[in-house]
């Protein structure tokens, strides 16, 4: 029997911080990721940066910006926790412990940038590769820690719970609790359990359930599906944030950071006319949901497949220095952003909802925590303020890791479980590919930026039928990472669609018309 005190599933920023925090509080930690490298998921793709503090800034000011962007749906005490603890943890963990090299001005002060709906510039960054530089620095610390064991290339199949997996029938009368997970080694495909006093889910986002997304291929909504099946409460899943500006061409979507607008970039129609100033007092820096819908409407009005983001009026050398990743990506795709505007469209970017957690990262299942994008802390409400996600990952990762470590001695019941029944039916990869296309197209067309009840009902029918099919072959199949992801993807798509169908009022990122 493999046993660990704390199992963290997912190695993005939240998972790494949780692992470090638990290990530093004396726990023996196993950090599991389905990818081959710890540097994976959404964290390394985050361009904009992380909130620190601006000049003449205060936790109160930040709180007001978050509440405004969240459109009346934020959990205020969670926002307080983020605003009060966040900047201090950035100093302690990112500056002092991990030595992240954030960009500085000639004066030696940190360079502060602005993004949508922030009342002051308060975001620190490393050019447009902020997530990558933070992630690398934190992973370095994780690799050095003797209490952290790393298990890459392993995928979680299901969480182990007293209600579902205990061989003791009387455990059904206990409070529902998680005591680890079934995993597979992606190469050998054998399923085995790991028992853990506590499990911390840090599986990241779900963008891959949409046709167009800024998320990497591994963002398949695993954590929502694992929690849903285990019986942990998930909520606010209707609030899928669409990033307003991703590079548009026929085959590609690529994040064009909001920091481009923060540094002066403007959105224009195909004829060069600006359109945001008539829509919101913050113009090009309005909250994301408002900008994304304004772009969508402009595309409809102008009968054009995209709008444009123009920063070409700035000095070329400055553009290349400030946004090297964006510059290179666009140039590779035939657009020189120093000379011409960037074609952009909205894409699915971030799930504001997720597995509901307390201020300490505890879910509704005993011994299960969730941190990072998979969790719903209540900070983001109906629409996330830019650059809060990395900060939330640091704050909740730190707190949940510490909390789990402090409860090791009380969270220690491990029941007998029945052995896993293995099957080895081969699944044609064409089925998996086509099923993903069905999920992605259904979610994009019917549960996208603009929703109607009819579209949501249609999506429900399609997804439920597909889920039946997938479950049918899943029951007899050889377990593979691809099959597990597909099963999770369809489950998460259904969870998002159900939450959306029940949410009849437009708010923040959820926009429904009759
Ligand atoms: C961006 O750089 O626009 C993305 C940052 C974020 O999603 O907070």
Structure description:
By secondary structure, this protein is an alpha/beta fold. The chain has 3 domains: 2-238 and 352-406, FAD/NAD(P)-binding domain (3-Layer(bba) Sandwich), CATH 3.50.50; 243-348, Flavocytochrome C3, Chain A, domain 1 (Alpha-Beta Complex); 429-513, Methane Monooxygenase Hydroxylase, Chain G, domain 1 (Up-down Bundle), CATH 1.20.58. The protein contains 14 helices and 17 strands. Strands 1, 2, 5, 6, 7, 8 and 16 form a 7-stranded mixed beta sheet that branches. Strands 11-10-14-13-12 form a 5-stranded antiparallel beta sheet. Helix 12 runs antiparallel to helix 13. The longest helix has 22 residues, at 76-97. The radius of gyration is 22 Å and the shape is globular. The chain starts with a strand and ends in a 12-residue tail after the last helix. The relative contact order is 0.18. The mean pLDDT is 97. The structure holds succinic acid. Residues 46-48, 257-259, 350, 386-387, 389 line the site of succinic acid.
Q: What layout of secondary structure does this protein have?
A:
Blueprint: E1 2-9, H1 13-24, E2 29-32, E3 50-51, H2 59-69, H3 76-97, E4 123-124, H4 130-144, E5 148-151, E6 154-161, H5 162-165, E7 178-185, E8 191-201, H6 222-230, E9 234-235, E10 240-248, E11 253-255, H7 258-262, E12 266-268, H8 288-302, E13 307-310, H9 316-322, H10 324-332, E14 342-351, E15 354-356, E16 368-370, E17 375-376, H11 389-406, H12 429-446, H13 453-474, H14 481-502
Parallel strand pairs: 1-2, 1-8, 2-5, 8-16, 15-17
Antiparallel strand pairs: 3-4, 6-7, 7-8, 9-15, 10-11, 10-14, 12-13, 13-14
Bound molecules: succinic acid (SIN).
Succinic acid binds next to helix 7.
């Amino acid at each position: 029997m493999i046993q660990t005190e704390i199992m963290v599933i997912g190695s993005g920023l939240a998972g790494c911080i949780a692992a470090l925090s638990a290990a530093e509080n004396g726990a023996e930690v196993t950090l599991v990721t389905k990818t081959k490298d710890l540097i994976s998921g959404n964290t390394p793709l985050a361009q904009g940066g992380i909130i620190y503090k601006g000049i003449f800034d205060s936790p109160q000011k930040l709180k007001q910006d978050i509440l405004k962007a969240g459109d009346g749906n934020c959990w205020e005490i969670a926002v307080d926790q983020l605003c009060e603890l966040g900047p201090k943890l950035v100093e302690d963990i990112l500056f002092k412990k991990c030595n992240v090299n954030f960009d500085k001005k000639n004066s030696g002060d940190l360079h502060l940038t602005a993004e949508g709906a922030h009342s002051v510039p308060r975001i620190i960054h490393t050019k447009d590769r902020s997530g990558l530089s933070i992630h690398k620095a934190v992973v370095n610390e994780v690799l050095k820690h003797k209490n952290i064991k790393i298990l890459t290339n392993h995928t979680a199949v299901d969480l182990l719970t007293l209600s579902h997996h205990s061989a003791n029938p009387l455990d059904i009368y206990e409070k529902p609790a998680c005591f680890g997970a079934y995993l597979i080694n992606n190469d050998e495909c054998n399923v085995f359990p790991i028992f853990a006093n506590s499990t911390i889910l840090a599986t990241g986002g779900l963008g891959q359930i949409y046709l167009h997304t800024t998320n990497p291929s591994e963002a398949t909504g695993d954590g929502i599906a694992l929690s849903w099946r285990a019986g942990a409460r998930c909520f606010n899943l209707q609030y899928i944030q669409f990033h307003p500006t991703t590079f548009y061409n026929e085959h590609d979507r690529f994040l064009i950071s909001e920091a481009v607008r923060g540094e002066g970039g403007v959105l224009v129609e195909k004829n060069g006319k600006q359109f945001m100033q008539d829509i919101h007092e913050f113009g090009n820096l309005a909250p994301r949901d408002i900008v994304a819908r304004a772009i969508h409407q402009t595309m409809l009005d102008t009968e054009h497949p995209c709008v444009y983001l123009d920063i070409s009026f700035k000095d070329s050398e400055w553009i290349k220095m400030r946004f090297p990743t964006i510059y290179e990506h666009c140039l590779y795709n035939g657009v020189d952003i120093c000379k011409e505007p960037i074609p952009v469209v909205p894409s699915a970017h971030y799930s504001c909802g997720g597995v509901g957690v307390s201020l300490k990262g505890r879910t509704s299942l005993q011994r299960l925590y969730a941190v990072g994008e998979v969790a719903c802390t209540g900070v983001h409400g109906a629409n996330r303020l830019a650059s809060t996600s990395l900060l939330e990952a640091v704050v909740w990762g730190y707190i949940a890791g510490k909390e789990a470590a402090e409860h090791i001695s009380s969270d220690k019941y491990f029941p007998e479980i029945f052995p896993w029944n293995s099957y080895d039916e081969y699944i044609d990869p064409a089925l998996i590919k086509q099923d993903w296309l069905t999920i992605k197209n259904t979610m994009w067309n019917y549960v996208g930026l603009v929703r109607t009840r009819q579209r949501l009902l249609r999506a429900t029918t399609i997804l439920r039928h597909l889920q039946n099919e997938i479950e049918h072959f899943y029951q007899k199949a050889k377990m593979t990472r691809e099959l597990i992801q597909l099963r999770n993807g369809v489950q998460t798509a259904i969870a998002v669609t159900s939450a959306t169908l029940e949410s009849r009022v437009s708010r923040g990122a959820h926009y429904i018309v009759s």
